[in-house]
Amino acid sequence: MTEEDIKKLEAKYSETKIQHICVEWFRNTFPNVAGLLFAIPNGGTRTKKSGFMRKYEGAIAGVADLILLFPRGGKCSLCIEMKTPRIKGKGGGIQSSSQKEWQGLVEKYGSEYVVCHGLIEFINSVCNYLRADPRPYINDVLRNYYKLI
């Protein structure tokens, strides 16, 4: 399987499924810090009442989908916004204005922020942040992608 094959498969998946695959890969690959990567349940549809309750409890528009609370390279955390893959002829998911605004805020105060369009970009981003070579991990995924889904 190639990286392009994975992108084509992921183009058929929801952002939620892609995020699940990425989180599972991370937790299996880095079990010692698995609990430091968590999802922020900001998106999706909800009732007016549940939306009000989320805001009442402190929800903020634009917060990244995933946060890795692990300081590295002078940064206090890695904030990851997941988007659907970019395929030739198709743009893939794009950030909203509130997501861009939140990105600027967290970068200003010492976090790294990335937008990942699928598993390969996620692996590259996480490994770069953790100062690990992504190539062996990507090669493993190319051989074993179907075990992840």
Topology, element by element:
Elements: H1 3-10, H2 15-29, E1 37-39, H3 48-57, E2 66-68, E3 78-82, H4 97-108, E4 112-116, H5 119-130, H6 135-148
Pfam families: VRR_NUC
GO molecular function, one term: nuclease activity
Organism: Bacteroides fragilis
Characterise the protein shown here.
The chain is of the alpha+beta class. It has one domain (3-148): Trna Endonuclease, Chain: A, domain 1, CATH 3.40.1350.10. Helix content is 48%, strand content 11%. The protein has six helices and four strands; from the N terminus they run ααβαββαβαα. A four-stranded mixed sheet has the order 1-2-3-4, with helices on both faces. Helix 4 links the parallel strand 3 (78-82) and strand 4 (112-116). The radius of gyration is 16 Å and the shape is globular. The mean pLDDT is 92.
Going by helix content, strand content and strand pairing, the class is alpha+beta
Q: Total domains, how many?
A: 1
Q: Residue share in helices?
A: 40-55%
Text of the CATH class: Alpha Beta
Major sheet summary line: 4 strands, mixed
The CATH topology is given as Trna Endonuclease, Chain: A, domain 1
CATH architecture: 3-Layer(aba) Sandwich
Q: Which key phrases capture this entry?
A:
11% strand; 4-stranded mixed sheet; alpha+beta; Trna Endonuclease, Chain: A, domain 1; single chain; globular; 4 strands; 149 residues; tRNA_endonuc-like_dom_sf
